[in-house]
Amino acid sequence: IPEMAPPAIYGEPKISSGAEGNVILEVVVTNAIPEKSQWFFGDKEIETNESFIFTSSDEGGGRKLLKLEIKDFDKPAAGEYKVKFFSADGENHATFNVVAGNAPDFHDKPHIVQRDGGNVIVIKVRAKSHLEMKAEWFKDEKPLKFNDRVKAVVKKDDKDKDGFQFLLEITGPIKEDEAKYKCVVKNAEGQNQQSLNLVFD
After folding, report:
1. Which of 110, 152, 159, 160 is most open to solvent, judged by the fewest CB atoms within 10 Å of its CB?
2. What DSSP assignment string belongs to 64-113?
3. Is-contact 32 94, C-beta < 8 A?
4. Phi and psi of 175, rounded to 5°?
5. Which residues pair with 186 in a beta bridge?
6. Which candidate, 126, 123, 138, 136, places its Cα nearest to that of 173?
7. How far apart are CA 20 and CA 56, in angstroms?
8. CA atoms lying within 13 Å on the CB side of residue 55
9. What are the phi and psi torsion angles at 127 (to 5°)?
10. pLDDT in tens, 129-174
């Protein structure tokens, strides 16, 4: 019998806004039995009903996506949410701090653009927000230090009046630039993030 590992979180728990003012909490877990998962708001367990809908789906590779949709999100629903998930012989949990209002949203997946014959590599994140927002960049989970070679650039998004492009420009890329980069975009009402791995062939 293979030893069961305790369940673990894969990647980062995510908070996003869905249609019609819904808020969606998602976390991908490994080694968990989704049917046993329990969701909590503060220290109170949530029952699934018309305001809270739980789903889980198989992401492949032993990963399961646990999802809570909060319908018609309003300020009383703001606060700390937690999901506990279980394996045959262990448990773990993920927490979500849901703030009232609209965190920034992303237009598409982050992508990499090369300029100047590959001498400049640009990681491009497109976000929109009804409030002023700012971006913070991380490299392998640590705040990124900028220098002459690595710069953060912000510009208006030409395709969306509420949107901005947050660019990370790396000039003369070197092996040490290979890493997982994360861009956390914040406004007064919340934050959202995207990440990608930069690997050179």
Report:
1. 159
2. EEEEEEETT--GGG-EEEEEEEEETTEEEEEEEEEPSS---EESS--EEE
3. no
4. -55, -35
5. 134, 191
6. 123
7. 21
8. 7
9. -130, 155
10. 878 899 999 999 999 999 999 999 999 988 887 789 999 999 999 9
pTM attached to this predicted model: 0.53
Dihedral sign (CA 116, 118, 120, 121)? positive
- How far is it, in rounded angstroms, from Cα 10 to Cα 62? 11
Residues near 24 by beta carbon (within 8 Å), at least 6 away in sequence: 15, 16, 17, 18, 67, 68, 69, 70
**Residues 6 or more apart whose Cβ sits within 8 Å of residue 70:** 22, 23, 24, 25, 51, 52, 77, 98
Q: Encoding tokens for residue 117? A: 């014959």
